[in-house]
Structure formats: structure tokens, C-alpha cells
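Feature request, filed as a ticket because there's no other form

It would be nice if the structure record came with a short human-readable summary line next to the C-alpha cells. Right now we just get the raw output. Example of a typical job, pasted below so the devs can see what we mean:
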Amino acid sequence: MLAKDLISDVVPALRTSDSGQKALYWMDIFRISHLPIVNNEDFLGLISDKDIYDFNMSDEPIGNHSLSLFSPYVTEEQHVYEIIELASRLNLSIVPVLNHSNHYKGVITQHDLIHYFADFSALKEPGAIIVLEMSIHDYSLTQIAQIVESNDAKILSLYISSHSSSTRLELTIKINKNDLTSIIQTFTRYNYTVQSTFMDHDDMDSLYENRYEMFMKYLSI
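Raw output as currently delivered:
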């Protein structure tokens, strides 16, 4: 998935003649904390709700103030992983998109990235989740897949998280079955540590959000 395929068709751009109050209103409507400032097709930078409050400019045009705008962006052909990395590293609620002529094309919202992540990770597919913990030296995707498939199941998605200060891995596996009893028993027999399982819908929703945040942090390392 490329940046051009994720551009929002609803989030507007600000002009320097727009007031801070208008910017705050739009941020509240779209549940974001940044908006792009654009002059014709030229991207001038991002303004945040904090900028507006700090300058106490809610009733004045944005252009009346000398702002030190930062200008992060991606180009239309950049991959979604690069977009997520930038959003995570700079804690952005939106990511501006420019074409190869450096003309502004739109923004990608964090909300859209979360939806993409859910689709990409097969999180919307029916099934359950099992979380394994292991040493990095014991990780074998071939063996893990064989264990799952020997119990008449399939891996829909798999996510690995680790810490630089540890040799332990946490492996989150989405499986196309709701009953994990036999799979858990097999993993235990092969001396895998089953850290947790998620078969209830509400628990899985919480896990999805948590795993997205971890994924964002992982890409920013």
C-alpha cells in the first residue's frame, strides 16, 4: 500500500488567512491535533493545537504570527511502513503527502493507518489469538506453523515484539479457529510458554489497539 492510496478525502488544509479558532474547530471535528498550512499547492508546514494555544491566536489569522512550523511529509509513492514510522517517531495525528513536484496532495490520518493495520494483519477475520513467549534462539517459524497446522488450523497473521535489552521474544499469532485448546496443549508439549490467549471479542479489540501501538513504536526504533 502506497501513500497515494491512503490520502483522506475529508481533512481540509488551512490557509494563512484562516484563524486559529477555525483550525481548532476543524481539529475537534476530525479528532486530530495537527493541520497542514497550504499556499495554493505549496505545503508550508504543520500547525498543532499546542501552537495555537501557546501563541494565544484563536481569533487572529494564523499568518499574523511568526511560527516555526515543522514540515514532515511523505511522497505519494512511499510505502505505508515509512508512513507509520514517521507518524510514530514524530507523534503525528496526520501525515502530509506531496507529489514529486513537492505539491501538496492531502494528508493521511492516524485513523486511516489503524484501519489499514487491521486489514493488513487480518485482525478483522474471525478467529482467536495466542501469545507465546520464548528466547530469540528458540524461535522457529517453521515449527510454529507446523504446530498450528497439525491441529487443522491456519495462521492468519503473526507479529513479533522484542526489546533491545532482552533476548526474549513475544509472538502474537492470529489463528482462524476460535477454540485454541488443542493448539495450546501442543505448544505446551513442545515447551513453548503460552503467555496469554484471546478468544473473547472485547478482549481482542483491546489487544488489537495495544498491538498497533506496539507496532508503531517498533517501526520508530
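Something like this underneath would help us a lot:
The longest helix spans residues 201-220.
The chain has two domains: 3-118, 121-220.
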